[in-house]
Amino acid sequence: QVQLVESGGGLVQAGDSLTLSCVNSKRSVSRYMRGWFRQAPGKEREFVAAISWTGINKYYADSVKGRFTISRATNIIMNNTMYLEMNDLKPEDTAVYYCAEQAGDYTDYAAVGSYRYWGQGTQVTVSS
């Protein structure tokens, strides 16, 4: 079973850093792709980053490439924790950030529809 819970959001200034965490509170071992998405007011939910279950393959949206880093714990006990390190934050990064997990091997890692499980979201607000 999968129940995703995000944490780490907050209010920061432009140029600051934040690290988001996503844990599966059911503590089951994940074998599928996980991703981060975000949704700003009045906009569609958009892809931010994704990581394979091994942690080897990582993918980023062009808008965050070079500033954000996705990772996940690889030891058995911590396998259910995923992180998003966000550096040099910009006002346009302001959004609710969601973590998500696939329930099968879907190659379109950037598509909302490829993910079955979603967290409740955590707000990130970047002031200028």
Helix content: under 10%
The largest sheet is:
7 strands, mixed
Strand content: 35-45%
The residue ranges in which pLDDT falls below 50 over 5 or more consecutive positions are none
Oligomer: single chain
Q: What does the average pLDDT come to?
A: 92
Task: List SSEs in N-to-C order.
Answer: EEEEEEEEEEE
Radius of gyration: 14 Å
Give the CA-CA distance, first to last residue. 40 Å
The general outline is globular
Q: Helix count?
A: 0
Q: How many strand segments?
A: 11
Q: Which structural class matches the secondary elements?
A: mainly beta
Please explain how this structure is put together:
- The model has no long low-confidence stretch (mean pLDDT 92).
- This protein has no helices and eleven strands.
- The strands form two sheets. Strands 2, 4, 5, 6, 9, 10 and 11 form a seven-stranded mixed beta sheet that branches. The protein has a four-stranded antiparallel beta sheet with strand order 1-3-8-7, with no helix packed on it.
- The radius of gyration is 14 Å and the shape is globular.
- It has 128 residues and is mostly beta strands.
